[in-house]
Amino acid sequence: MPESQIVFENIIKTFGEAVAVEKMSFSIEQGEFLAIMGSSGCGKTTTLRMLAGLEIPSEGEIRLNGERINELAPAKRNTPLVWQSLALFPFLTVLENVEFGLKMHGIEKTERRERALKWLDRMEIGEFAERSIDQLSGGQRQRVALARALVTEPPVLLLDEPLSALDANLVVRMQGVLSKLQKELGITFVYVTHSQSEAFAMADRVVIMSKGLIEQIGTPQQVFREPATRFVAEFVGSNNIISGKVSSKHSDVHRTDLFQGVPYTVDTDLGEVVISSGELDLGATVELVISSDRMDISFDPSDLENQFPCKLVSEEFVGSIVTLLVETENGMELKIQKQHKDIENIQLQTGQALWVSWERKSAYIIPGR
Amino acid sequence: MPSSDKKRLDYYALTWRLPVIVWQVLFFVGPLVFMIAMSFFLVKNYRMTEAFEMKNWVKMFGKDYFWDSYFLTLLLASMSTIVATCLAFPAAYGLAFKVSGNVRRWIVFLLIIPFFTSYLVRTFSWYVILAESGVVNNILGVIGLGPYTMLNTRFGTLVGYMTLTLPLVVILQTFSLANVDKNLIEAAQNLGASRVKVILQVIIPSAKVGLIIGAVFCFILSFGDFVAPYYLGGSKPPTLPILIIDTTKSGQQWPRAAVVAVMMMVTLMIVAFTAIKLAYSRKAYR
């Protein structure tokens, strides 16, 4: 089997005493849109910079198309980067900015002009070719940065939080532009971001990093619904995480339950919680991850399982989705997300007594370490 | 009432600005106007008399020695500017990019130390080094070279100019290079620029304003300097500052000296204005 386009093998990067990346191994396939996600200082930007040659790994090996590139000078790799600050040259015109890479590769004037103009047209900013950078809007600059990076027809494009300076509407528009470009060009995009929505909207696979370590690699659906670690469950989505100990396995397994796994009872701070899962050891510690959109509230108790009394602490309205924060009797806070249209007719008051519940199959189980 | 409030504020601000304005008018604008007026005065029986005649201007412009001085001074100051800018750049580049901020601060401090000593003293110290029996010729003599005449030559003048300007130019260049956006340098490398191309295509254009300001300072200081060409350059032919002194000494020709001074002012203004315009020029306007 041929090797993946980009391979990180046991990469370690230290800056003096500080460890930025700790023993990381993963690979990126040709034509893939990979997002590297994590909070600031997790090592995601360092990872990208190592790929661009702007940092040299302390240990391990990075391979591009099967060749070791650890020490290859940045100018010798064709791995353009789109900076968070965009790093456009303020002393050059839009056209000259886009021409820059071609000029450095020794392409003669008429050809590079032609190729640069073609890319400006493709990015729909051809009319601004002769302008200076400070005469453009944020979105237009973004397009110049993309054209400048892509004009040399690289096999890989690296992007370091390129949309973080744009306003929300523009971000969504540029996400569309980026996705479309990546599909049309068929080249690999490596996209570093702290934004879940950007990563999920565009990426084929997502790498979640924390403190220099990879926590999970998977499709957006996988990291969202099946978080591998407690960190991922807290970082991605809006989850309630409840720790507990497996106390008993149910013997009265119905046939229908078998499709969803075996029911167990877990002792948690809330009380006994019923889950359905694959094989678990009795006495094992587990983390139950229940997405806040899979929790329900009601005014009165019913015969549902996993039902606990609570009272409403706050209600946060952010457009079409409402997040309710409730506190259970033993002081645990749980988040519940509802569509605004579903609860707009219910009169909820802070401090009101409610019941929170969820189905046993809604809890995703992370085995304790 | 709002209007009277505003008036009171203006008086307040004016009070604070007044000392500077008075100082500038008394000691800068006043003398300048007087100097320009003086260039039209006449000297009769070794005494200056008020007049408005073009005689001094016609006289000076008609003399070859004035134009010799003028172009020599222009040439020497230009050479000084080019040499200082080229010598300072590698040093400033190293200070801006190759050393830590702490080392940079110490070296900039060391560069300020020469200004603690009188420029005249520093110039005289070159005698010991550049004289025919000086340090340099002694060392060269060991390997069978020389002795070379370095004092009373244009080389000597340039050494003097460097003594005056080089530390300042290095400091100005260092600060402007240190402010170049590091992202731009990385972006250029990322787009395939070699080390030399990064310097030529990104660092120099980014630091253009600071580099030009450094060069302008060097030109102004060299153009108006009297010490280096007089003591190290031998003053033959004299540069304009020396010409001013000579003119005032011979026959009390203050008005003719004023002509030279006005010409120097005009030249410096043109140079400074052109340089500043160049520094802030932009390729793209539309």
Helix content of chain B: over 70%
Level-1 CATH class name of chain B: Mainly Alpha
CATH topology (fold) name of chain B: MetI-like fold
Strand order of the largest sheet of chain A: 6-7-8-3-9-10
Instruction: Flag low-confidence runs of chain B.
Output: none
Determine the CATH superfamily of the largest domain in chain A: P-loop containing nucleotide triphosphate hydrolases
Name the biggest interface.
A-B, 32 and 23 residues
Radius of gyration of chain B: 24 Å
The helix tally of chain B amounts to: 13
The total number of structural domains of chain B is 1
What does this structure look like?
The complex is a heterodimer of chains A (369) and B (286). Chain A is 25% helix and 36% strand. With 369 residues, chain A is an alpha+beta fold. Chain A folds into two domains: 6-234, P-loop containing nucleotide triphosphate hydrolases (Rossmann fold), CATH 3.40.50; 238-367, OB fold (Dihydrolipoamide Acetyltransferase, E2P) (Beta Barrel). In chain A, the strands form four sheets. Chain A has a six-stranded mixed beta sheet with strand order 6-7-8-3-9-10, sandwiched between helices. The longest helix of chain A has 18 residues, at 168-185. By secondary structure, chain B is mostly helical. Chain B has a two-stranded antiparallel ribbon. Chain B is globular and about 70 Å long.
What labels would you give this structure?
heterodimer; A: alpha+beta; Rossmann fold; OB fold (Dihydrolipoamide Acetyltransferase, E2P); 6-stranded mixed beta sheet; 5-stranded antiparallel beta sheet; 10 helices; 20 strands; about 25% helix; B: about 290 residues; mainly alpha; MetI-like fold; two-stranded antiparallel ribbon; 2 strands
